[in-house]
Design brief:
14 strands, six-stranded mixed sheet, 8 helices, 259 residues, Nitrilase/N-carbamoyl-D-aminoacid amidohydrolase
């Protein structure tokens, strides 16, 4: 499986332009799966604009991405704000996976960042349930940015059979070192592929560093996008590497054995 880590600057509040840029990235590299950053469709620093920009699962933005995926026979993972399907009037910060068959899978960010420059709890309701995406026949755990600092969430995916973790993010340059420490740790301790796609560019008072990256199931760096610029990079996802990693370091076996 070929996975593209896609980072390109997006326009704050301009969904149509951001979807156009998404489509341009799809045409830049050929892959089976494309991964974009947190709240890519709207931009991250939308604040009070979020209720106007948010959509339902059957909204125009999701429909447009469905068309892109079907036309190219690929899957697309990306972030956007969605209205709650259970409780009217509540917003969630979501990751979506759109498949070539038009299927849509959704994860609602569980751990909302609300410290320093982050104000997510002012606008979003936290999700309650970890969700695994079936992407091109492989199971991926999903998390959004701050979620990755909660190892119990990622471990829950591994024990359910995830072969990889997809983390979409809106991380500013001030957080780069912390992310680059924790991402290989999540890969190593769970013996899973870890794919990280971050926003890039400036939005209001926040500068996102890009630097999308991927780690193998032994914590080895497979790819890193450049900082602060547009880039689309493709990696090969090989499930056989997971079997090798788990024979060499049986952390998952011992986790399950101690349950």
């Amino acid at each position: 499986m070929r996975v593209a880590i896609a980072q390109t600057p997006n326009e704050l509040g301009d969904k149509q332009e951001n979807l156009r840029r998404m489509e341009k990235c799809l045409d830049e590299q050929e892959a089976d799966v494309y991964v974009f950053g947190e709240l890519f469709v709207t931009g991250y620093m939308c604040r009070d604009l979020l209720p106007r920009l948010a959509e339902n699962m059957d909204g125009k933005s999701v429909s447009r991405v469905q068309g892109m995926a079907e036309e190219r026979s690929c899957s697309i993972v990306f972030g956007m704000p969605l209205w709650s399907e259970e409780v009217p009037g509540l917003l969630h910060n979501c990751a979506l996976a759109v498949g070539p068959d038009g299927s849509v899978q959704k994860y609602e960010k569980v751990n909302l960042a609300n410290f320093g420059p982050f104000e997510e709890r002012f606008y979003f309701t936290p999700g309650q349930t970890p969700v695994m995406f079936d992407v091109q026949g492989s199971q991926f755990g999903v998390c959004i940015c701050y979620d990755v600092f909660f190892p119990e969430l990622i471990k829950s995916y591994a024990v359910q059979g995830a072969k990889g973790l997809i983390c979409i993010s809106a991380s500013p340059s001030t957080s780069r070192e912390q992310f680059e420490r924790v991402l290989p740790a999540r890969a190593t301790e769970n013996t899973i592929y870890t794919i990280y796609s971050n926003l890039v560019g400036a939005q209001l008072n926040m500068v996102f560093f890009g630097g999308g990256q991927a780690y193998g199931p032994r914590g080895n760096l497979l790819a890193r996008n450049p900082y602060f610029k547009h880039h689309v990079q493709v990696i090969e996802f090989d499930p056989r590497e997971i079997e090798i990693a788990r024979r060499m370091r049986p952390t998952l076996r011992d986790t399950l054995g101690g349950a």
